[in-house]
Amino acid sequence: MTTTLDGKVALVTGGSRGIGAGIALRLATEGADVALTYQRDDDRAALVVKQIEALGRRVLAVRADSADPDAVRAAVDRTVEELGRLDILVNNAAVFLVGPVEQLGPDELERTLAVNVRAPYVAAQAAARHMTGGGRIINIGSNVARRAPFPGLALYSMSKTALVGLTKGLGRELGPRGITVNLVNPGPTDTDANPADGPNAAAISGLTALGRYAVPAEIAGMVAHLAGVDGGYVTGASIDVDGGFAS
């Protein structure tokens, strides 16, 4: 599933670490210039910038809190202003707030919906104003939108399930313009936030058919496929890259 993205410009939200960093690097490897947003860690963002520059691609890091719709819109507009266009939007930024439903109050609800639901909508809305035929919007969901394996996931699962409707609706609306919209649902993936050697990793791995965590590059490979010419007839789809977690 390799593709060439020479001449394309991508924006990856939450692109300084974990799956987002893996996606940003893969798109750059495929030839795209890449903008990425991050919330607070300047050093992590600078590292990804350095890695992309080493690939010979232009790169832009934008500090932006995805809970702020104005910041999300500004990141899209700045990408177009500084890199000249926008062909690919990857809505990856998310918060993972879990716990008993009785203990997750209005603040947790507001932030989860702001980052995981409103921000992808706002970013897609802003990006659609700049995209032409061949544009790609790729939302990053979660395996727990398909299967909640343990208690405490109701809020997060709800927020990620909302992306199914967003993806289908936008796919239908933007299809006539030649813009595709798809959803990738990663399974357990080895990142700082969810390490493959963490205390619950063995149990989580056991929930997959393959019996292991993914690495970010495996999620990024599917995103690169959807972003490229070979993904041009796929839209409104939800694609599980979860090692058989939802099987």
Report on the architecture of this protein:
This protein has 247 residues and is α/β, with parallel strands linked by helices. 41% of the residues lie in helices and 14% in strands. It has seven helices and seven strands. Strand 2 (33-38), helix 2 (42-54) and strand 3 (59-63) form a beta-alpha-beta unit. The model has no long low-confidence stretch (mean pLDDT 96). Belongs to the short-chain dehydrogenases/reductases (SDR) family. One of its GO terms (molecular function) is oxidoreductase activity.
What is the C-level CATH assignment?
Alpha Beta
Fourth-level CATH superfamily: NAD(P)-binding Rossmann-like Domain
How many structurally independent domains? 1
Please compute the radius of gyration using only Cα atoms. Answer: 17 Å
Give the overall shape. globular
Care to count the β-strands? 7
Q: Report the CATH architecture.
A: 3-Layer(aba) Sandwich
Question: What's the rounded overall pLDDT mean?
Answer: 96
Low-confidence stretches: none
**The CATH topology is what?**
Rossmann fold
Widest β-sheet, arrangement of strands? 3-2-1-4-5-6-7
Count the DSSP helices.
7
Largest β-sheet summary: 7 strands, parallel
Query: Gap between N and C termini, in Å?
Result: 22 Å
